[in-house]
Design brief:
Layout: E1 5-9, H1 10-25, E2 30-34, H2 42-50, E3 55-58, H3 61-69, E4 76-78, H4 87-93, E5 96-99, H5 102-114, E6 119-124, H6 139-148, E7 152-158, H7 171-188, E8 194-196, H8 203-206, E9 217-220, H9 222-226, E10 244-255, H10 270-273, E11 282-286, E12 298-299, E13 304-309, E14 314-318, E15 328-333, H11 335-343, E16 348-352, E17 370-372
Parallel strand pairs: 1-16, 2-3, 2-9, 3-4, 4-5, 5-6, 6-7, 7-8, 16-17
Antiparallel strand pairs: 1-10, 10-11, 10-15, 11-14, 12-15, 13-14
Helix pairs in contact: 1-2, 4-5, 6-7
Length: 373
C-alpha cells in the first residue's frame, strides 16, 4: 500500500460507539456522534450510527454535504454557530443547529420560512469554557425570542467543556447547567427535547455515580474515535485506542556526524526543528510532515525518537536498529494529529472492517481518496 496513509478500523469505531451508548443509556443519556475530526467521511459516520448513535454532528457544512451526498439521512446537527453566509445550506442540510447569536437565528428563521420548513435551534450556554455561549443570565431572554420566532423551534440547550479551557466539568457546574433547562421551560412554557451537556470530556462525570439531572445527550467524537479522555489523555476503560493508525514511509536512513551549530531563523518552528539530537543515533526521514499532520501529536514506536519536522519531512532517531529506505512505520495520532491527517489530500485513507452497503452509502459516492479493504 502507498504511504502516507491512515488505516481505519471501522469495527473498533462501532465497538466504541456501542459501548458508550450502552453505558450512557443506563444514565438516561443519548449519544450524538461528532464527525468533524474525520471530515465527515461517510463510512466512519455510518460506523457511529451502526454503534447506536442517535444522530451526527459536525462543525463544517462541507462535511455535512459529503455525508448527505453519500446517502446518510439521519439527523445531522451543525455544532458550530452557523456562518451567516452559509445559513441557506445549514437549513437545507441540517435539522438542527447550535446557536449563540440572535441575528444568525433570525436569518435561519427567514430562510426556513421561505422553504416552508422549521429549523431546530439549540442555544449554547457559557458555563466556564469561555469559547462560545450565551451568558447564563441572558439565556431566558434569548429563549423567549426564539420561541416567538416563526421558522425556528427551540429544541433545547447545550454547553461545552474542555474545548478552549481544557478543564473538565464537575458535578456542581453540571447541576447548575441542568437547572437552566428548568428555568427556560418555566419562562417559555415549552418542553426542551434536548439538554446536551457537552462532549467526551464529560464522560468521567457521566459515567460516575452522581445525578445527571436534566442532561440527556452528549456529543462524542474523541472518545469514540480514539478511546481517550480529552483532558487527561488517558484511555477510557472498555474502549479501543487504536482505531486509527498513521503509516509513513522511510525515504532516508543514515548515520550522520554532529552538525555545525546554526542560528535559528524561524523561532516559530524551534520546538519541532531544533530538538536535541544525538549524533550516535541513526537518523531516518519519514515522508510525512507538517502539511500532513500535527507531528507533535504523534506517538512513535519504542526506540524511535522524534528529532524534528518540516513541511514534508519528519526526522527521527533510532539507537537499536536502523530503518531501511522503503520500510514503513506505524504511528499513533492524538486528536489534533488525526484531524489534520484526515484533512490532508496526500494522506490516503484505508478503511478496514466495513460492512455491506446496507447503511445506504452508494459506492459511487465514496470519496476519491478513500480505499475500502
Amino acid at each position: 500500500m502507498t504511504a502516507p496513509r491512515i488505516e481505519v478500523d471501522l469495527g473498533k469505531i462501532r465497538h466504541n460507539t456501542r459501548y458508550l451508548v450502552e453505558r450512557l443509556a443506563s444514565r438516561g443519556i443519548t449519544v450524538t456522534g461528532v464527525t468533524k475530526a474525520v471530515c465527515g467521511y461517510p463510512a466512519i459516520a455510518s460506523a457511529m450510527l451502526e454503534g447506536g448513535a442517535i444522530g451526527l454532528a459536525d462543525a463544517r457544512i462541507t462535511n455535512v454535504a459529503r455525508m448527505r451526498k453519500a446517502g446518510i439521512t439521519c439527523p445531522i446537527s451543525m455544532i458550530r454557530t452557523p456562518l451567516p453566509s452559509q445559513a441557506d445550506q445549514v437549513v437545507q442540510s441540517c435539522e438542527t443547529s447550535y446557536n449563540t447569536e440572535m441575528d444568525v437565528i433570525a436569518k435561519l428563521a427567514a430562510i426556513a420560512r421561505r422553504n416552508n420548513t422549521v429549523h431546530n435551534i439549540i442555544l449554547m450556554v457559557e458555563m466556564g469554557d469561555m469559547r462560545e455561549g450565551i451568558m447564563p443570565d441572558d439565556l431566558i431572554g434569548f429563549a423567549s425570542q426564539v420561541v416567538r420566532m416563526r421558522g425556528v423551534a427551540l429544541k433545547g440547550i447545550g454547553t461545552n467543556f474542555a474545548c478552549l479551557g481544557n478543564i473538565a466539568p464537575h458535578s456542581e457546574v453540571m447541576a447548575s447547567f441542568s437547572s437552566r433547562a428548568d428555568d427556560v421551560e418555566r419562562a417559555c412554557g415549552r418542553v426542551l427535547e434536548t439538554v446536551s451537556g457537552g462532549g467526551s470530556a464529560n464522560l468521567p462525570w457521566a459515567l460516575g455515580f452522581g445525578k445527571t439531572g436534566r442532561i440527556n445527550n452528549l456529543r462524542l467524537g474523541e472518545a469514540i474515535l480514539l478511546g481517550v479522555d480529552p483532558v487527561s489523555g488517558k484511555p477510557v476503560d472498555g474502549l479501543h485506542t487504536d482505531a486509527f493508525t498513521l503509516v509513513a514511509e522511510v525515504i532516508e536512513a543514515k548515520r550522520k556526524a554532529k552538525p555545525m551549530p546554526l542560528q535559528a531563523v524561524d523561532p516559530a518552528f524551534s520546538v519541532l526543528r531544533l530538538a536535541q539530537d544525538d549524533h550516535r543515533k541513526t537518523r531516518s526521514i519519514l515522508a510525512v510532515g507538517l502539511q500532513d499532520t500535527d507531528v507533535a501529536g504523534l506517538t512513535f514506536p519504542l526506540g524511535v525518537k522524534l528529532i524534528g519536522a518540516t513541511s514534508d519531512h519528519t526526522v527521527v532517531g533510532t539507537t537499536n536498529s536502523s530503518l531501511r529506505v522503503g520500510s514503513q512505520m506505524k504511528l499513533k495520532a492524538n486528536y489534533s494529529a488525526l484531524m489534520r491527517a484526515m484533512n490532508a489530500p496526500d494522506v490516503e485513507k484505508v478503511l478496514f472492517g466495513r460492512r455491506d452497503l446496507s447503511a445506504g452509502i452508494p459506492a459511487k459516492h465514496i470519496h476519491p481518496n478513500l480505499a475500502l479493504v
